[in-house]
Amino acid sequence: MSKKRSDQHPSSTQVDAAETAPPPRHHEGGDLPAHGHHDEEVVSRAQVKGYWRANVRLVGGLLAVWFAVSFGAGILLVGPLNNFSLGGFPLGFWFAQQGSILIFVALIFFYTHRMHKLERRFGVDDD
Description:
Helices cover 61% and strands 3% of the residues. A hairpin with a 2-residue loop joins strand 1 (85-86) and strand 2. Helix 2 (45-76) packs antiparallel against helix 4. The protein has a domain at 44-122. The chain is mainly alpha-helical. The protein is elongated. The model has no long low-confidence stretch (mean pLDDT 77). It has helices at 12-20, 45-76, 78-81, 91-122; strands at residues 85-86, 89-90.
């Protein structure tokens, strides 16, 4: 009778354990360090909920500003604004054609600035 060696045929419990084992907690390849600074960090549900609440509030506020500038100044208030001029063009016309686009671009930069602050405050930044 031949004796089975355990290294030749793994038992079913060894196979199950190997299949359910978590992957190694390190980066593989490239110039990345063996462990990243996020490997041991845990963000609580309260932090995630607060982060998304602040993010949605920020986006809602910025969309309200953009709506007020584009719809309000470019459409609703075009008559009174046309009494003033900017670069030789009536101000209402300028807001309808260029102002809302420029305000939107400025809001994008403001959003990125505020998001960096929010990410640091809630501990989800990449730094």
